[in-house]
Q: What sequence folds into this?
């Protein structure tokens, strides 16, 4: 029992001595850290307001403000450790080594973030535009610092890393996508009439853009038919639906107007010896 009391007394004495020697340093470190937290919140809010007033993109504004706030907290934390008498030089060296290792390990992610910043600053496209990149089509739904999110007519979400949005060929057709079709008519048919009928039929479909006039004309002279091609613009979300609907109506219109759509034919001549 006496030994236990003696041990408690020694612990108590060490605790009293510690607080007597380091109480001011601990209180000072806490005050510095708390003031730093308050200052970081104020600086974050101030920078965010300045960026938003200058019409900087919201995503980029939040990223910059949060990054500066993190730097302020890190600096204040080092000052608090210094106040406690703890050398911060090893921490700085360790932080540098960790940063180098993380940079090498996450170089793909870093390049995506850098590309995201470039996209937000240059704005080559916006939400609602239709993009084709890496043979993938979709409407822009969201632009993040690391990736861009597309959505297609099947409501499939397509995530594309931003480094591909910068370093590759990017086709932006805004909110529309072009549809191409063709049909073969007989050489005996009235070509001018067929072109007019197809153009009227395409324009009659509800989703076809009236701002970009459909193009209809002779595309090719086949072995057994004249190929009439037509091109028109539709919203990305109804690309296939409109394409199938237009093709069916073109077929109906040509059939009801006595314009023949021939099948491939070959004439064989047999010579008897």
A:
């Amino acid at each position: 029992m006496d030994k236990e009391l003696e041990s408690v007394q020694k612990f108590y004495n060490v605790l009293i001595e510690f607080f007597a020697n380091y109480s001011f340093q601990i209180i000072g470190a806490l005050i510095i850290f708390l003031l730093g937290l308050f200052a970081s919140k104020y600086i974050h809010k101030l920078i965010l307001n300045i960026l938003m007033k200058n019409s900087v993109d919201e995503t980029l504004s939040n990223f910059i403000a949060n990054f500066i706030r993190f730097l302020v907290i890190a600096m204040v934390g080092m000052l608090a450790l210094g106040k406690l008498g703890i050398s911060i030089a090893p921490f700085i060296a360790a932080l540098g080594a960790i940063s180098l290792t993380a940079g090498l390990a996450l170089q793909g992610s870093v390049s995506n973030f850098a590309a995201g910043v470039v996209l937000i600053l240059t704005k080559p496209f916006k939400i609602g535009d239709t993009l084709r990149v890496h043979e993938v089509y979709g409407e822009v739904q969201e632009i993040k610092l690391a990736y861009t999110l597309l959505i297609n007519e099947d409501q499939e979400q397509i995530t594309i890393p931003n480094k591909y949005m910068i370093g590759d060929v990017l086709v932006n057709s805004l909110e529309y996508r072009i549809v191409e079709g063709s049909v073969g008519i007989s050489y005996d048919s009235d070509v001018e009439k067929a072109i007019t009928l197809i153009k009227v039929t395409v324009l009659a479909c509800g989703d076809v853009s009236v701002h970009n006039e459909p193009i209809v004309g002779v595309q090719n002279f086949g072995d057994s038919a004249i190929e009439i091609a037509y091109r028109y613009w539709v919203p990305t979300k109804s690309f296939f639906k409109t394409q199938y609907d237009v093709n069916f109506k073109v077929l109906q219109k040509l059939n009801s107007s006595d314009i023949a759509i021939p099948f491939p034919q070959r004439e064989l001549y047999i010579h008897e010896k």
